[in-house]
Amino acid sequence: MQTLLRSPRPPGAGSHSRVLLTLMQCVPFLIALAVLIIELTPAHFIYTGPLLTAMPALAAVTMGPRGTMAAAALALAVSVTTATYNQAWGTLQVYTNFLALALVSVAGFITSSAMQTRRQRELDQVRRIAVAAQEVVLRPIPARLGPVQAASLCLAAGTGAQVGGDLYEAVQTRYGVRMIVGDVRGKGLSAVRAVAVTLGAFREAAHYEEDLVELMNHCSAALRREAAVPGEYGQDVLLEGFVTALIAQVPDEPVVQLVNRGHPPPLLVHHGRTTTLMPTSPLPPLGLEDLATGPPAKTESYPFIPGDRLLLYTDGVIEARNRDGDFFALPETMERMRARTTPREFLDQLHQQLIHHTGGDLADDVAMILADRLTGATGSDGVGPPGPQRSLP
To answer: For the PPM-type phosphatase domain, which residue ranges apply (predicted)?
Structure first.
């Protein structure tokens, strides 16, 4: 996902850098082609030794140790081919070229390996700092919250050093257990900043705002206030980014109440069957309220009885792909997993299934909350709250 907060980097800068890097990586191979053309034509009187010697040196700058050795091997093959074609074996010039090529190749390999090691160290350090910053904002949820037993899981993507904007929280309030899962459009410290703003608003308003729609609106208002603060990120942040969010409430009654703002719908496991709790009226994410054209937001209720299992997650789960490009089949995977497990054990198993599917290479961050409705954790009347309640399909 892209950034919620304005980035000072000009548009297209990343693509231009990638094009320039690709062109630089092609230079050693273009040199090899040019040498072959010169040596295998009447123009072979031109001395091409320095050109071949430069190939591994140029590769060491942009292609890493393996690329350096590949360029050196190609330069050696071209040297042998041209020396044989021109019947130059036995001359001092040929052996001088081989010696220079060997020295430059070894030096290039050593330099490239040292540069790669240094870059990896710096990348690991930046990632540790970013993960630490995220862990300050996110925290594991308690194993028991009122009428539910719960667990959380947060996985960082396996590529790059930037941390994404996945967020989650669960708190026990006088209205019931309230949970939020969301995804900021962005990565890095800007996304962590947006996560902190959203969670701060949720943690505060969850204890005094009775209506879930108004609770969601508090989170949206907090993001807008943050965007309006003059400074490094500009004042029109929410015109460029957004936050998908889902708030769930589990009261004493056997229901779960949801407000969904553009987030992947939660999954409910009931008697071994997984149901997707789709909203009746899709709503735009936080920050894109001006695009709303349908009916106003409202809280939707679904049955959530003892023994049921509810999963809240971010799109990094369902958009995870394997080598064939197939998406992770989350509902089917949940149905195949053992039912008699604790939420922590279930998420650990789901984690293993996800890693197996992707081969250990997550393209996006993942956040999940699993809540089990405990037996006997219903209200005194044993019925749901007044108002409309949707039945499971």
So the answer is: 148-373
Among candidate residues 38, 74, 40, the one with its CA nearest the CA of residue 54: 74
Q: Report how far residue 294's alpha carbon sits from residue 189's, in angstroms, rounded to the nearest whole number.
A: 34
Both structure tokens of 156: 């960082």
Note the helical H segments in the chain.
Answer: 13-39, 49-62, 64-85, 92-137, 188-205, 212-228, 315-318, 330-336, 343-358
Domains of the chain (ranges plus CATH)? 13-128 (no CATH), 138-373 (3.60.40.10)
Amino acid at 59: A
Cα–Cα distance between 182 and 198 in angstroms, integer?
Answer: 9
pLDDT at position 379, please?
42
pLDDT (tens digit per residue) in 300-354: 999 999 999 999 999 888 888 888 888 999 999 898 887 788 999 999 999 989 8
Distance of alpha carbon 106 from alpha carbon 124, whole angstroms: 27
d(CA 144, CA 257): 19
Amino acid in the structure at residue 137: V
Indicate the pTM of the whole model: 0.66
Tell me the two tokens of residue 365: 């961050």
Structure tokens at 225: 């206030």
Which tokens belong to 57?
A: 């040196």
Name the amino acid, one letter, at 260: N
62/76 Cα distance (integer angstroms): 20
Q: Which residues pair with 247 in a beta bridge?
A: 180, 259
Single-letter amino acid code for the residue at 178: R
Strands 255-261, 300-303: pairing is antiparallel
Q: Which one, of 377, 369, 367, lies nearest residue 344 by Cα?
A: 369
Contact 274, 281 (CB under 8 A): no
Of the candidates 229, 167, 164, the residue with the CA atom closest to the CA atom of residue 191: 164
In 223-343 the beta strands, taken as DSSP E runs, fall at 243-250, 255-261, 267-270, 273-276, 300-303, 309-313
Q: Give the whole-angstrom CA distance, residue 236 versus residue 238.
A: 6
Long-range contacts of 20-24 (CB under 8 A, 24+ apart): 21/62, 24/58, 24/61, 24/62
The answer to whether the beta carbons of residues 371 and 181 sit under 8 Å apart is no
Q: Which residues contact 262 (CB under 8 A, 6 or more apart)?
A: 242, 244, 245, 282, 283, 284, 285, 286, 288
Residues in the chain: 393
* Tokens coding 172: 């026990």
Number of H helices, E strands in the chain: 9, 11
Phi, psi of 368 (to 5 degrees): -145, 145
